[in-house]
Amino acid sequence: MGNLFGTDGIRGVAGEYPMTVEFCYRLAEAVFAKFCTSEDRKHTILIGKDTRISGDTLEHAMAAAFCSCGADVKLIGVVPTPAVSILTPKFDASVGIMVTASHNPFLYNGIKLFDENGLKLSEERENEIESINAAPLLRKLKVQSMGRAEYVPGALDVYCDKIINSFKSFDGCGVKKIVVDCANGSFSAIASKILKKLGFDVISIHDSPDGVNINENCGVLYPDVLGNAVREHRADAGIAFDGDGDRVIISDRNGEIRDGEQILAILAKSGSSKEVVSTVMSNSALGQYLKSVGVELAEVNVGDRNILEYMQLKKDVEFGAEASGHIIIRSHALTGDGLFAALKVIEQRGVENFLFRPNPVVSTNVFVKNRLLMNDKTMQDVVRKFKKQLEGRGKLTVRMSGTEPLLRIYVDGENKEELQKIRDEILEAAGRLL
């Protein structure tokens, strides 16, 4: 992977490289050069965004570049990320773009790219875009060959109808009154409407975005907020999203939270697939539970794109998930959809019981300047030693973040004191190399 793309697109502080007007214009030129090579038709680009204040600026920078290259641009406004994935092929677009920094604070923004089928780009295609972006570009058109940009206000209705039409009835599911935490993000305007049309009594919170309050003390990163709201309103369940709506957590009536791994277990138990997929950061108790119900757990590198790539290779794998709340249900969409996943769990009465209890976890994120730290043999030897120590009893994963300059250490097992000691020795080894 090059220097621009992380595990989920390009991300940074808005107004600073790479999240500048100049860079986004240049990126759009590179994306056009990669995806719009056919000259026998007018290419269409679909652009959505979340609610952060910098979205308008970056969206219009990219739209201007695409139009100057000769493409038409459909601006679909504030939408959840899964809507971009679903609508890109419906609009016969060559590329779908979501301007979002997902769960990050409003100061950040980012770019997620989807191909003509609604798939996130492979690492290979990202690298090709980076190579084009580094080369001098060159497309100068006559005025009459330039593209047009237009708003498509009805586009979101197509997505909403798809959700509503996917479910017939929730009678007998055990959930009538539900709290929904929209994280002041992409689902703010539509989650409550969809849920009410499906027959729920809805209490909607954090649904008043002002450009700077996205993910602020709300959403998936603040599960206690959701749990407390469910208890306060005496609701039957609660769901919370991140800023762009591709992640979800679920609360039962007692305020206890189901994360992405619990959701994956619920879906796996109720489904017909004999294999599901998560990441190397999954709790070892998840794999043990799934094995007990006859389902195999495959593990891939962190990132929902890697999960989907595995699902594309294994056509019989219907469900994939990360603990963070990315839940991919292949038959619905080619990316995570927080609302759809939550509704599938409710439909299966999945908020009633915990299917497994995760092992104790010790995790730490440490700021590091050296992104090649894990290439050092000393670090590799230390990690290898502790993985062998935990074999059959737990799990150790040490990796560099794909979106931030952080070393991420994750260790789970039966004895928390042992886990803390392992974490501390890894930190000590890393400290000697910084």
Name the features.
7-stranded mixed β-sheet; Alpha-D-Glucose-1,6-Bisphosphate, Chain A, domain 3; 5-stranded mixed β-sheet; 4 domains; single chain
How would you describe this structure to a colleague?
By secondary structure, this protein is of the alpha/beta class. It has four domains: 5-155, Alpha-D-Glucose-1,6-Bisphosphate, subunit A, domain 3 (Alpha-D-Glucose-1,6-Bisphosphate, Chain A, domain 3), CATH 3.40.120; 175-255, Alpha-D-Glucose-1,6-Bisphosphate, subunit A, domain 3 (Alpha-D-Glucose-1,6-Bisphosphate, Chain A, domain 3); 259-358, Alpha-D-Glucose-1,6-Bisphosphate, Chain A, domain 3; 361-433, 2-Layer Sandwich (TATA-Binding Protein). 35% of the residues lie in helices and 21% in strands. It is built from 13 helices and 19 strands. It has helices spanning 21-35, 55-69, 81-90, 123-134, 155-165, 191-197, 223-232, 260-270, 284-292, 304-313, 338-347, 377-390, 416-433; strands at residues 5-6, 9-13, 44-49, 72-78, 95-99, 108-114, 149-151, 177-181, 201-205, 237-241, 248-251, 257-258, 275-279, 296-300, 319-321, 327-329, 361-367, 395-400, 406-412. The chain has a seven-stranded mixed beta sheet, sandwiched between helices. Strand 1 (5-6) and strand 2 form a beta hairpin. Helix 1 (21-35) packs across helix 2, helix 1 packs across helix 4 and helix 12 runs antiparallel to helix 13 (416-433). It is globular, with a radius of gyration of 22 Å. The model has no long low-confidence stretch (mean pLDDT 93).
